Amino acid sequence: MSSPRLEALPHRQVLTLPTAPSAVRLSRQTAERALTEWGISLRHPAVDPALLILGELVTNSVRHAALLSPELTVIYAAGADCLAFAVHDRHPYQPPLYAPVTGTGSGGLATVMELTLGLSGTAVVRGDADGQGKSIWITLPL
After folding, report:
1. How far apart are CA 81 and CA 115, in angstroms?
2. Is residue 65 pLDDT above 60, yes or no?
3. Could you give the count of Cα atoms lying within 13 Å of 94 in the half-sphere of its Cβ?
4. Cα–Cα–Cα angle for 105, 19, 94, nearest 5°?
5. Cα–Cα distance between 121 and 102 in angstroms, integer?
């Protein structure tokens, strides 16, 4: 699947939260509200995996970036045939998304990639211009 230009997606919402455990629940609740407002059924087969992916990415920011990034940002976007979201924090480490999954694997990211690829989606890490943060973008077909 080729990723549509994210700017071209008609629906978009941005949420900034403290990098704390409550961010996981709040980011999922916001996603469910946004999807409903955008006319995407919460029963769509891509929605449960998307919410799990989102939760894993936010959890990773809370676990690994909180010291350097007191806030994280979630960007939600959708169009008629795709759903996209990103989790951004200000920690400079950019994890390899497509690294081979080994027994010592990265846990949450391995789950993220398994679900994303299983849905024929894409994942990309985009570093901030100053090199001090990154966003992990997930795009899933609907």
Report:
1. 18
2. yes
3. 14
4. 40
5. 21
User: In whole angstroms, what is the distance from residue 79 CA to residue 84 CA?
Assistant: 9
Q: pTM, whole model, 2 decimals?
A: 0.90
Rounded to an integer, the average pLDDT of 82-102 is: 87
Amino acid in position 48: D
CA triple 122-112-3, angle to 5 deg: 10
**Res 2: pLDDT:** 43
Tokens representing 54 are 């989102």
The number of angstroms, rounded, from the C-alpha of 74 to the middle of its chain's C-alpha atoms is 7
Altogether, the residues listed in the chain come to a count of 142
Residue 47 neighbours by CB under 8 Å, 6+ apart: 35, 40, 41, 83
Residue 54 burial (10 A CB sphere; 0-12, 13-18, 19+)? buried
Residue 67 one-letter amino acid: L
pLDDT score recorded for residue 80: 87
Q: Alpha helix (H) ranges present in 66-139?
A: 108-118
Cβ count near 96 (within 10 Å): 9
As a whole number of angstroms, the distance between CA 112 and CA 115 comes to: 5
Q: How many CB atoms lie within 10 A of CB 119?
A: 20
